[in-house]
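Q: I'm writing up a methods section and want to include an example of the input and output format. Could you take the sequence below and give the corresponding predicted structure tokens, formatted cleanly so I can copy it straight into the document?
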Amino acid sequence: MDKLRAVLGGRDGNNDNTNILQAANEASTLGWGSRLKGFLACMVIGVVCTILGVCCLFIPKIGLILFIVFYTLGNICSLISTMFLMGPLKQLKRMCDKTRAFATVVMITCLVLTLCAAFWWKIFALTLLFVILQILAFAWYSLSYIPFARDAILKFFSMLFTTCVK
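A: Here is the clean output for your methods example:
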């Protein structure tokens, strides 16, 4: 709207005070409706990929590989979907907070290693191990957004472990 006023007011619309980063930020800023649509689209794609992966488990010979690929793509889409809600920069800053930095690194490493083990190294047992670690890492990362959830889980398993040891 400011650019339209500037053009109608006889100015050419170029403001020397704005730099390239501010112009890029203004151009890439999405409205709330667009953010919600992007979030829902990516989340639905992520859930569909995950469900499709589970359905592929029953295909002989290639079912497990398809599960691994679709499950990993589903996790990536789900992770990207949250960037629409709060913006990519804010999401990346939150991912690197001291409370979830380790969980973020483990989760992203497991995502990458799962795909590497499935396609480059072609070691089935290692791929399966990375999928299991990916599930655990994604759950631990997700719990970091719920206040005191990780503490409650740790407390529960420590109580469970101490009663099993006795």
